[in-house]
Design brief:
alpha/beta, three-stranded antiparallel beta sheet, binds 2-acetamido-2-deoxy-beta-D-glucopyranose
């Protein structure tokens, strides 16, 4: 696949790192079997504290990112069903804000060491909410879910799948923010805050992967600080690139990511997906497809044409 089929709107800014406001291509981010282009916009801290930033079409930073997504999709003829957000620190806070305020734009998000959407609210632009950063908020699942839902009142369409990474020894954005963010997205999807499956040492020690449902996962690093590890290969799996775009060229790729260990030969085999995959004959990929891209055992996802992949 050499067309630019995907646009990756990435909020990779680390707070305080001023790199100039420009759209840059990122290379060497995880396995790249699909020829995915990743475009990243970095600036200083994102505004995630004003009412405008936390509101759909509110004319603040979140709105600017979405405008850049539209521009980029047009310029590179991108696939609007494959727009994703990820980032660290301020970028992770923004990832949660984008997922809440623009569920119509983003298909999935991955937040590394952030806070839940609206947690950083101060009512000012680029404010710093220390009650939030220090992890002093311990609110209900319902509170956080409503905070996300109220960023785009009346919206009833699909919402991004979210994976939340954090370190337990984070003293910039305390680890309580991990639990509050898990409450937010499990609440939005109607899941329990108790994980249904736990994978120790995943993607590797000292991280543990917690699955709350098909659309929400947490990866918590024991003793890990704010300087958290980024798992690019696992991110590409979460976004569905390394699975759905395998074209049966015969190359063998074995990847140990948190989603599962997958072996690709002439088609894709997904193992241990915990019921995540499609049933026999279900669609599992193709242009415009936003559903699951794996199949339950023993079926494999096979490309029938560019528009239709099926579990066979
Ligand atoms: C993936 O491969 C394509 C085609 O070779 C390249 O243009 C793109 O920059 C690569 N992306 C990453 C993230 O490395
Ligand atoms: C910090 O955020 C919380 C909610 O996330 C809010 O209750 C509190 O008033 C905010 N603090 C400031 C100083 O605005
Ligand atoms: C948060 O609140 C819940 C119930 O309200 C309580 O069980 C839990 O221990 C609290 N967590 C922290 C870290 O204070």
């Amino acid at each position: 696949m050499h067309l630019i089929s995907s646009v990756f709107a990435s909020a990779l800014a680390l707070c305080g790192v001023a790199t100039g406001a420009s759209l840059q291509q990122v290379t060497n981010f995880g396995a790249n079997t699909s020829g995915t282009k990743i475009l990243s916009y970095s600036g200083t801290c994102w505004d995630v504290s004003s009412k405008e930033a936390l509101t759909h079409n509110g004319d603040a930073d979140s709105n600017s990112i979405v405008n850049m997504v539209s521009y980029t999709l047009g310029k590179y003829n991108g696939d609007k069903s494959r727009v994703f957000a990820t980032g660290t620190s301020s970028g992770a806070m923004m990832t949660n804000v984008l997922a809440a305020a623009y569920p119509d734009v983003f298909a999935a998000g991955i937040a590394y060491a952030g806070v839940p959407a609206t947690c950083f609210y101060t009512g000012t632009i680029n404010g710093w909410n220390s009650t939030c950063s220090q992890g002093q908020l311990n609110l209900s699942q319902e509170y956080w879910a409503n905070a996300a839902l109220n960023a785009y009142p009346g919206y009833t369409g699909p919402r991004p799948r979210m994976r939340i990474h954090h370190g337990t020894a984070d003293t910039t954005l305390y680890a309580q923010n991990y639990y509050e963010t898990i409450k937010q997205w499990t609440g939005v999807f109607g899941y329990s805050t108790t994980p249904s499956t736990t994978y120790p040492n995943t993607p590797r020690s000292p991280y543990t992967r917690y699955v709350f449902g098909p659309n929400v996962e947490g990866i918590l690093g024991q003793g890990v600080s704010h300087n958290i590890d980024i798992f690019g290969d696992a991110d590409m799996e979460w976004f569905g690139f390394t699975i759905s775009l395998t074209d049966g060229s015969g190359t063998t790729t074995t990847m140990a990511g948190p989603t599962s260990t997958r072996t690709t030969t002439t088609s894709v085999t997904a193992t241990a997906t915990g019921g995540l995959g499609g049933a026999h004959y279900a669609q599992c990929g193709g242009i415009g497809w936003t559903g699951v891209v794996t199949c339950v055992s023993p079926y494999t996802c096979r490309k029938l044409n560019d528009y239709y992949y099926q579990c066979l």
